[in-house]
């Protein structure tokens, strides 16, 4: 029961050239913002139809647990603003009913999503404006979130302070033009359709160069009306896809233009995931690691800009911390040290520091959890293999062993793995962890999970609409090419282990 991984990978890599903006699922949150902000934009009716089609039976939108809050607020506000037809009004009422229930405590904790502390109060304020017009009870802010941060940001901008670069991706929470905010090629503000529409203005008047409107028209054309939270994601998609495939040893030739453009994207302080986004350590580290594995190694010195006293941050000034970012920096540094034994001692000391930090931040059950993905299988699949390949000393060995034991203990009856349900994506991550410590127990678990992966590849369902969106942005999303690369890499590694 073998799969032609090489052939599938060649098709996948060809798509990196054919679709340079990236392949990612549309977002309820972002689409709802365009319904309100840009009714003049082509595809308006299709965006409303998308919101109606994706509403859950309980009246909400989005993923399980607290992941429903932001998309439900956005979709409900958009339908209230539209108010066009019985179906739209009925869907808005169901959304309001869900939000009211959750306001009474029927909801789990709010996940750590980008700009959520700004988005939730901004959307709640908009929904309450609609309710006030009809003298209806207002929605309360959920526990743990208030409007203080949003108020401070708005006050700072009103006082003429420069817009923080990280804010641009969620510019829709403040809206309007600003002297220091300009679209970046191909015309995007913050790599976000909603942010760009908010900057452009309610009537859709062309900006000085016309690029912002052209960007929006191109974005909605790609998805037939709905839009994702971030587009283009060129560097992010290429870095992760090529890194997964290269590390697994999948036989594929990467076009020189892709390698050259990926290398050119990494500057003195790193690279952003896409145009209009801030440079970050995560994308920088994965891009450097992918290039190194594909014969384009360069010194990863751009990552020093993200070093803190204890670990590496995603970007300077980050309030949280990310296990996967530190795992990716460990891979970039570890590979450089392995290939260049005479590298400056600073890199070796950083490897020890990263090992200690990842070991200390492993959960009690043996997994890692992270702010960039809903599933602990993703975070664990980043951390355990990085420690197995490049970690320093017994702390790395211990951490890898605990991670493998956790993966074995959480395998489902059908052989798959998954946080909410068994998925090919999470099964691929589990296999990646298991192969970091190849022994009899992990081998049996891999053999049980392998048919689940093969079936998904043969059905061409990997990265399809049936897969849950689990990656964190303003809304959950699914990067189709990256997930398919992870599954193909796991299948290839499993087939090699059987041999």
Spatial gap, N to C terminus: 13 Å
Total strands: 2
Helix and strand string, N-terminal first?
Answer: HHHHHHHHHHHHHHHHHHEEH
Mean pLDDT: 93
The backbone outline, from C-alpha atoms, is: globular
Can you describe this structure in just a few lines?
This protein has 499 residues and is mainly α.
Q: Could you characterize the architecture of this molecule?
A:
It contains 19 helices and two strands. A hairpin with a 3-residue loop joins strand 1 (471-472) and strand 2 (476-477). Helix 10 runs parallel beside helix 19, helix 15 runs parallel beside helix 17 (424-434) and helix 17 (424-434) crosses helix 19 (480-498). The chain has a two-stranded antiparallel ribbon. By secondary structure, it is mainly α.
Q: Secondary-structure map with pairings?
A:
Elements: H1 5-18, H2 28-37, H3 44-54, H4 69-82, H5 86-103, H6 116-133, H7 148-158, H8 193-200, H9 211-223, H10 234-248, H11 256-265, H12 281-293, H13 323-339, H14 345-360, H15 376-390, H16 393-409, H17 424-434, H18 440-458, E1 471-472, E2 476-477, H19 480-498
Defining key terms:
1% strand, mainly alpha, two-stranded antiparallel ribbon, 499 residues, 19 helices
């Amino acid at each position: 029961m073998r799969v032609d991984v090489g052939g599938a990978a060649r098709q996948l890599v060809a798509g990196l050239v054919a679709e340079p903006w990236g392949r990612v699922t549309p977002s309820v949150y972002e689409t709802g913002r365009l319904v309100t902000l840009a009714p003049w934009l082509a595809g308006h009716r299709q965006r409303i139809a998308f919101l109606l089609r994706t509403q859950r039976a309980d009246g909400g939108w989005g993923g399980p647990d607290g992941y429903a809050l932001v998309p439900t607020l956005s979709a409900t506000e958009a339908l209230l603003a539209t108010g066009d037809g019985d179906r739209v009004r009925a869907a808005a009422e169901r959304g309001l009913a869900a939000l009211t229930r959750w306001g009474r405590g029927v909801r789990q904790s709010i996940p750590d999503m980008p700009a959520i502390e700004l988005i939730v109060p901004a959307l709640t304020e908009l929904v309450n404006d609609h309710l006030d017009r009809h003298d209806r009870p207002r929605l309360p802010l959920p526990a743990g979130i208030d409007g203080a941060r949003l108020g401070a940001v708005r006050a700072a901008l009103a006082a003429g302070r420069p817009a923080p670069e990280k804010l641009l991706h969620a510019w829709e929470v403040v809206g309007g033009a600003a002297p220091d905010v300009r679209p970046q090629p191909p015309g995007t503000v913050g790599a976000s359709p909603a942010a760009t529409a908010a900057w452009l203005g309610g009537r859709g008047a062309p900006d000085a160069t016309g690029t912002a409107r052209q960007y929006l028209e191109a974005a909605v054309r790609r998805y037939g009306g709905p839009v994702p939270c971030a587009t283009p994601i060129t560097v992010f998609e290429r870095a992760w896809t090529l890194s997964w495939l290269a590390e697994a040893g999948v036989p594929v030739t990467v076009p020189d233009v892709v390698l050259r453009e990926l290398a050119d994207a990494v500057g003195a302080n790193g690279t952003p995931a896409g145009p209009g986004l801030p440079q970050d350590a995560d994308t920088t580290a994965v891009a450097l690691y992918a290039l190194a594995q594909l014969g384009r190694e360069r010194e990863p010195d751009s990552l020093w800009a993200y070093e803190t006293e204890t670990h590496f941050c995603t970007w300077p000034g980050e309030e949280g911390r990310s296990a996967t970012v530190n795992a990716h920096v460990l891979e970039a540094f570890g590979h450089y040290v392995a290939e260049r034994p005479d590298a400056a001692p600073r890199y070796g000391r950083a490897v020890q520091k990263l090992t200690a930090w990842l070991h200390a931040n492993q959960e009690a059950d043996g997994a890692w959890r992270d702010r960039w993905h809903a599933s602990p299988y993703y975070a664990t699949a980043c951390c355990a293999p990085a420690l197995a390949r490049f970690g320093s000393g017994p702390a790395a060995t211990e951490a890898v062993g605990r991670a493998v034991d956790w993966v074995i203990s959480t395998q489902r009856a059908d052989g798959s793995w998954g946080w909410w349900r068994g998925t090919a994506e999470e099964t691929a991550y589990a296999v990646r962890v298991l192969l970091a410590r190849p022994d009899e127990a992990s081998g049996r678990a891999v053999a049980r999970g392998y048919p689940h992966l093969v079936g998904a590849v043969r059905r061409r369902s990997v990265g399809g609409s049936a897969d849950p969106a689990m990656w964190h942005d303003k809304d959950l999303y699914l990067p189709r090419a990256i997930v398919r690369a992870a599954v193909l890499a796991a299948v290839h590694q499993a087939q090699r282990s059987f041999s």
